[in-house]
Design brief:
alpha/beta, 6-stranded mixed beta sheet, globular
C-alpha cells in the first residue's frame, strides 16, 4: 500500500506551480546570485510526514511508500530528512509534489509509478498514474459502467519520485 496525503497547504492562497513563496514557505530567491542553499533550507516551511508516523506506517501497515502534495515527504523545517532516512533504511519510496489527490478514493485505487532505469542517484521526475475505475473502491461504489466493461479513469500526476532502491 502507498499512503498519500493531501495537506491542504496550497489551498490558503498562492499557486504551488507559480508562487515559490507559497510553495516553499519562504520568499528567498533561489535564482539570486548570492543564493545560500543552507540558509534557504533553514527557512523553508511546509507540511510533511513525521519520522514517527513513517515508522508506524512501516511497522503496522507494511506500506511500500508514501506520497504528499508538498515539496518533500519531510516537513519543510526538518533539515535532517528523517522520513527520507526512515524509508531508505526500509527500502521504501516517497512521492512528492503530487496533485489531483482530491480525485483519488481513500482506498482501493491502483497506483502506477514506473521509474526509469537508473544507477545511483536518489530522485527524479516521474509521471504517476492512479487507476480509480477498476479499483476495489470503485467497484464497491456501484458505479461500474456496463456489464463486464471497465473504463480506466486515470488521474495523472507529475511528481518527484524519491526512489530508494537504486535500480540497476
Amino acid at each position: 500500500a502507498v499512503v498519500s496525503t493531501q495537506s491542504g497547504h496550497y489551498g490558503r492562497g498562492g499557486d504551488k506551480y507559480t508562487d515559490t513563496e507559497a510553495y516553499f514557505g519562504t520568499a528567498m530567491d533561489q535564482k539570486a546570485d548570492d543564493f545560500d542553499y543552507y540558509a534557504w533550507v533553514a527557512e523553508i516551511h511546509f507540511p510533511g510526514f513525521s519520522a514517527e508516523l513513517a515508522t508506524k506506517l512501516l511497522t503496522d501497515y507494511k506500506i511500500t511508500g508514501v506520497g504528499i502534495d508538498t515539496a518533500s515527504i519531510d516537513a519543510g523545517v526538518s533539515g535532517a530528512f528523517p522520513v527520507h532516512n526512515t524509508l531508505e533504511a526500509n527500502n521504501k519510496y516517497g512521492l512528492e509534489n503530487l496533485c489531483c489527490l482530491d480525485k483519488v478514493p481513500e482506498s482501493g485505487a491502483t497506483l502506477i509509478a514506473i521509474p526509469p532505469k537508473m544507477t545511483g542517484g536518489s530522485g527524479f521526475t516521474i509521471r504517476v498514474l492512479v487507476d480509480t475505475d477498476s479499483s476495489y473502491a470503485y467497484k464497491q461504489s456501484g458505479r461500474m459502467s456496463g456489464a463486464g466493461t471497465q473504463n480506466m479513469n486515470v488521474c495523472g500526476f507529475l511528481a518527484l519520485f524519491y526512489f530508494i532502491l537504486y535500480v540497476q
